[in-house]
Amino acid sequence: MTQQPITLGISSCLLGNPVRYDGGHQRDPYLIHTLGQYVHYIPVCPEVECGMPVPRESLRLVGNPEYPRLITRKSGEDHTEQMQSWADKRLQELEKKTLCGFIFKSKSPSSGMERVKVYSEKGGAATKNGVGIFARAFMKRFPLIPVEEDGRLHDPVLRENFIIRIFALTRWREARINMKMGDLVNFHTDNKLLILGHSPEHYREMGRLVAKGREMESNQLFADYEMLLLEALGRKSTRKKNTNVLQHMLGYFKRILPAEERQEMLDLITRYHDGQLPLIVPVTLLAHHVRKYDVSYLARQSYLNPHPAELALRNHV
Fold first, then answer.
1. Is 187 exposed, middle or buried (0-12, 13-18, 19+ CB in 10 A)?
2. Which residue numbers delimit the DUF1722 domain (predicted)?
3. What are the two backbone dihedrals, phi and then psi, of residue 256, each rounded to the nearest 5 degrees?
4. Disulfide check for 106: which of 80, 88, 151, 252 has CB 3.0–4.6 Å away?
5. Is beta strand 6-11 parallel, antiparallel or unpaired with respect to 101-104?
């Protein structure tokens, strides 16, 4: 597991800060008490930080969903330039914080990362295809940094995927310090099966990249690898992909496991694939066999331990 703290940006109201337009908040106990044990949060409230009071008139997005304006609902005051000017400066500050991710407030005209209502100029029915102005600017400035919003994090698959990504990015940044070619090979070896569980295509491409790494300039090599790593882990893992990884791991026990134990493992993998068991069940038994039979290659795989067990993420996927 990582040694340095994981720094995440977060919409301030999710931490219980009373910064919403009505003076309220959207305190999220999971983010505060569970995930909060492992991360350091940098709270951001775009509307307050760009100079709006609490309480304040509520806002909405109006116009072209690609370039919406930020307008107060009743008075029609336009705060678009005010928000964009502030966002440019805030993003420069956040760039210095080496964020490993950001958790946005869903549906917010400033911070929602998807499906935000955008109203027509003539006041017609809203469409749900907008992005909050600050969230859009953040994702454009940091396209590979993992982002999520509070509503989507209630989905167990999306929650685990986001947390896998922030821990993996932190491990990468630790390894990247004074990295040499051998360090890259070691990092890739440790994370091969985790990558395979998210994107077999990236798994193959990254293997080819590392194989020809000595032919490349090191900074370019490491930058290319980081981009592929974050792209790969940005793809959702599935039961089919995880089943492939579990079967791949079981292959290392072909001449080790007694027939009855191998069959037990196969049965658990099948039941997981069919949706009858959560991922934690076959992974736990495989990890037991890895320790018992001292399979060194598998013992180093981050796939078996990509995030703290106390988060219990694999109990639900």
1. buried
2. 192-308
3. -115, -50
4. 151
5. parallel
What is residue 152's predicted lDDT score, i.e. its pLDDT?
A: 96
CA-to-CA distance for 161 and 306, rounded, in angstroms?
10
- Average pLDDT for residues 30-50, to the nearest whole number? 97
SS3 117: strand
Place 5 in a pLDDT band, splitting at 50, 70 and 90. Answer: confident
Q: What is the mean pLDDT of residues 111-129?
A: 90
Of the candidate ranges 3-17, 38-52, 97-111, the one whose mean pLDDT is the lowest:
3-17
Least Cα distance to 48 among 13, 7, 96 occurs for 13
Burial class (CB in 10 A: 0-12, 13-18, 19+), 216: middle
Residue type for position 259: A
Contacts of 197 (CB under 8 A, 6+ apart): 237, 241, 242, 244, 245, 303
pLDDT at 124: 72
DSSP type of residue 33: I
For every residue of 63-91, DSSP letters joined together read: S-TTS-EEEETTT--B-HHHHHHHHHHHH
Residues 6+ apart with CB under 8 A from 223: none
Rounded average pLDDT over 68-78: 96
Cβ pair 30, 153 in contact under 8 A: yes
Is 62 in a helix, a strand, or coil?
Answer: strand
Q: What is the pLDDT of residue 122?
A: 78
Find the mean pLDDT for residues 130-139: 98
Q: Treating both helix axes as pointing N-terminal to C-terminal, what angle do 80-95 and 133-141 enclose, rounded to 10 degrees?
A: 40
